[in-house]
Structure formats: C-alpha cells, structure tokens
Amino acid sequence: MPLPSPLDLRVPRNLTATLQLIQRLVGREDHQRYCSGVIPKDRLPQFLQKMADRYPQILRTTRERSYDRRRRGHAAMHMIVFPSAGITPFESILPLHWLLLSNRGKGGLADVDSADFEVSKDAMAAISHIVIGDYVLLYATKRRPHRLTDRSSGRGRVIFTDTSTWTWKLRGDVMKELRAQIQECCRTLDFGANALANIPGNGLRGLLASQCERPLFAGVRNQIIDLYRYAADTWPPYRNAWLSAHPGTASNDGSTAGMLPPVNTFMKCNLPMIPQIRLYGTPARTVRDLLTATT
C-alpha cells in the first residue's frame, strides 16, 4: 500500500548514503529530471503534502512504481529529504534539503503537462548538474579495475579500463579553494600534523588527511589523489626552511623529516574504494523523525 503520509518518507542514514541513493536513481534508474531546494523545517510538512497531492507517485512502493511504469506508462518519482550537506554533525536539522527526482513518463517532471515541467532541470545538462554541498553529480569517465589471469603463467594481474558513468566530484570552486589552502600552508611553513585520537589534525598534513574523510566516490577519490600530488610537488621547495625552523623534529625523524609519504602509500593507507552501503538505518529514520529531533 502507498505510504499514508509524506512525513513517512525514509531519510538516508548519512551523507554518503544520501549521495549514493541519488547516484543510483539518476544513473541506474534514469531519474535525470529533477527539482530541488532548501526549506525551513516548519514549512516542510505543508510543502511535502502539496507535492504529494501533485505527484502521488512519491508515496508509491517499489512494486507499485514498477507496475505504474510497465502497465500505465507513468513516471516513477522519488522525494528525498535530508539535512543540508556540510552541517556537522549530520543529524543537525536546519535547514532541510529536498530533491524531487523523476524518470520519463506520464505525470513526471519530463511530461510537458507537469505543473513543474518549466522549472525542472536535466541532471545531464552542463548548466544544471545536481549539486549537494561541496559535491556535484557528473556523467564522467573513470578508471575501473579488472582482474585477469594470465593463461601461460597462471598469475593474476589487474588492468584498468576507462568507462563513463555517473559519479560525484568536488565542485571546481571547492578544488580551487583547497589548492589555495595547500599553497598557504606551504608558504607559511605550516607542515602540521595528522589527527591523533581526539586531537584534530592541522596544517598541510591535517588538511590532506581531512580530505580522506569525504565520501570516497570514484570522482572524489581521484580528485583527492590529485590534491595530494599537487601538495607533494608544492611542498619540497619549502622543506629546508621548515627543517631549519624545527631542528628537533629533523633529528628525531632523520631523512624522512618534513616529507610527505609517497602517493602510493597515501592511497593504500587512506583511500579505500567506497563500497555499496546500507542506505537506511534499522529502523529507518523518517521525515517525521527529522522534524521532531532536537539540534
């Protein structure tokens, strides 16, 4: 049966799950037409009810959506509500972000008779990619590993092929800001340190380490590697000045003092490939839970 209320819509359990759900709907399930916005929590119930009246598909179950799609030619639609990206902790509920996604079909956002046809956007278009906080969803080329076995030797090896798919990346202006921060850390000889236990990291090393805490989608992961390479190229001319300013560290760490680990070491220790994760908690949190939670 359909959900009785839009307040019973499930909420993804964290930012990574939210981005993964959007990526799956836009990519695998072809929900490329969308509307989005940010709304105060006190206005959300009335807004969601209006959208449910306009698009009852958002309250349909997976089986009902499939039936509507195959037998009636109706569009499948999903309404996702979540705390705006960049809020820490993620459970903070002001403001709330909403995203309405639709594939093609009658009654969907791509239908010219839809109430929101004129204001809806195409996620594939360069001027209207989906942006959530620091992240933008792009149809991009990424390298995919494949494991092969050599017939003559029986040994396994990994080859990489380029494939085009939907992936999240850091926005261009975010990447510019991070490069500027790397330059500033180098210029001020702020080599810093990685985080330890409850002590946050700082300086260049802390900045690089903090990027590894982002949702490591393929596009984001590759950008973090590029940032690390940029830092590894930018820092060496400043190293001798840093060593002179920190003679004690130089004597303790020897030849590795003031050096960033090799890129391969950084990737192996800090950048695991992101797996498919559970999208919802047990039990799943709902929009109603968000509205009644305290900050």
Which properties best describe this structure?
295 residues; alpha+beta; 2 domains; 4-stranded antiparallel sheet; 3-stranded antiparallel sheet; 10 helices; 9 strands; 37% helix; 20% strand; elongated
Walk me through the structure.
β6 (131-132) and β7 (135-149) form a beta hairpin. This protein is α+β, with helices and mostly antiparallel strands. Mean pLDDT is 87; it is low at 86-93. Helix content is 37%, strand content 20%. The strands form three sheets. The protein has a four-stranded antiparallel β-sheet, with helices on one face. The protein has a three-stranded antiparallel β-sheet with strand order 6-7-8. A two-stranded antiparallel sheet has the order 1-9.
Note the total helix count: 10
Task: Give the helix proportion (percent range).
Answer: 25-40%
Distance between the termini: 33 Å
Percentage of residues in strands: 15-25%
Instruction: Please state the oligomeric state of the protein chains shown.
Output: single chain
Count of the domains? 2
> What gyration radius follows from the Cα positions, in whole Å?
23 Å
